[in-house]
Amino acid sequence: MKQRGFAWLLLFVFVISLLSCAANMEKKRAQAKATRELGEAYMRQGDYTAALRELLKAESLSPGDHLVQNDLGLIYMSKFRYDLAETHFKKAIQIKPDYAAAKNNLGTVYLATKDWHSAIKTFKPLEGSLLYATPHYPLSNLGLAYYSLGNYPMAEEYYLRALDIEPNFIIALRGLGRTYIALVKIPQAVSVLERAAREAPAWPELYMDMGEAYKLAGQYTKALLAYNKVSDLAPNSEIAEQAREEISKMQP
After folding, report:
1. This prediction's pTM
2. What total number of domains does the chain contain?
């Protein structure tokens, strides 16, 4: 009887220990989630230093959370620490291999560091993914990678595919317009860039592209207006100086 009672006591202690451990783990997970969400709130506000502080706390509480790893990658991207961003995006993918957002973010690291071939290799598996809610992003990113490699027909193909999914996606519209300039399809470039300007009327770089397209089309008055718009939108910027140089070339 004593042995049986002792066995029941051991079992009771074991069960209580398991329940206590589970409760502590649940509490830790809840704390990690709350800390991560606070970090994400700071990210949305643009306070990346405060966001990093909270997300590092969340990582210490839950290092196996793919969302935390992805958030840390985004923070380090914002701080131009592409080496650390790459590390955390890869961790997120290792934890959750089908995490398409982290794969796209990893590809953007390669775009930022001009590693075009690695970018293409990273984005390619996403182009037909049914798990990614915004497939026009990797398609447009593939367009940029091919454009940067000078493969303009492939860039055109991917930008058009992105726009088939999201017709008003401004990044793809501008990219397609620049690609048409490179392909010397000037009427198409003008049309696409004008469409882009209706979607993003305050984007200085876009008007720089429009100025080039108008000039190549022989529409010099419109080109001057586009270049002047660059200076109006970003008067003290480097791109405004470039616009003023283009204006001076066009004036007698």
Report:
1. 0.84
2. 3
